Amino acid sequence: MELVNSTRMVAGYTMGIEPSGRELLVVVVKGTFQIPKNGEPVRLADEQVPLVMADTFTGKPGFSAPMHEVDFAPRKPRCDVLLNGSAYAPGGRPTARVEVGLRVNGMAKSFAVVGNRHWQSGLRGMTGSEPRPFAVMPISYDVAFGGVDNRHEDPAKHAAFMRNPIGKGFHKDLRPEWVDGAPLPNTEEVGRPVTSPDSQAVLPMSFGSIGRGWDPRYKYAGTYDDKWREDHFPFLPPDFDEQYYHAAPLDQQVPHLQGGEEIRLVNLTPDGQIAFALPVFDAPIRFFSKKAAQEHGTLVLDTVLLEPDKQRLMLTWRATRPVKKSLFEIAQTVVGKPSRAWWAERQETGFRIPLVPLPPGEPEHDEPDVDEPDIDEPGK
Question: What is the value of pTM for the model shown?
């Protein structure tokens, strides 16, 4: 299959599979934009970040926080809103605690970022030391509450905090020689400080992706037992839930966005607070079969990834089309708005795709339409 990308963003495709075994054509368009100053419009970045072909992490895979998930999830029922970044002390003046916040289209999440501290034993049991002031503190699940306690000589007494097994601060065995001096997390809920190393009620706080094997995400992956092996292998189990494809925690999932929604960041940049509107991107997608039949699809914005430390915003649109027999029945997929010259050239070279009337407002020139996608300024 040929993929024609008439945008200045990156695009790619792959094959997905439903639990029934039906094949899917998955087309992804990802744009990298510059995070603007307050009051300025979002602009397409000169450098477009490539599509992610394999999950990346802050350190050793499986033992550190997920950074970027592969871009080819077949479907996302909602839109993931993610952020990789740091907390900034107001005015650059070091402080022991900062409240950070992210707001997108009615979704609001905030938590406290705390300076480095450690557990210390005393007459009142385990307590946290006074936090050290900081000016900038990286935020990820690496520094959120969680972790693995595997120091006991008996493996049966090992434990993991499955909502964040790569974090810090969690201990099942409270022997002073094992816990005293161990670090506490750098993030916690506002008004609910971390007070106990063995608590299972603490919510790990971050804005990044959660691991595929963490609680509760792994529960959506379905059941892989003898019945699955006998009746469904190598396909997904019947109880597989597409919510598994969401990298964001539930409180960072919103209905699919349209563009134009306001994003507000609090203490996640040196400016303190910034607000801007998501760009509006209108790009058609067309599927052409080998028999030249044309089918219009829909690109859905289902992933928003902010990286304020790098001053960039990445948006991912996705179109998923079931195929009847195999992926080879589709000859060509066209993303964006090629010019009349492109269509004419295809016709002249014998490619069996008929010329199609251009939508209202389509440019009449013969230059390829590969400029910036339609981006409306806030308020328009």
Answer: 0.89
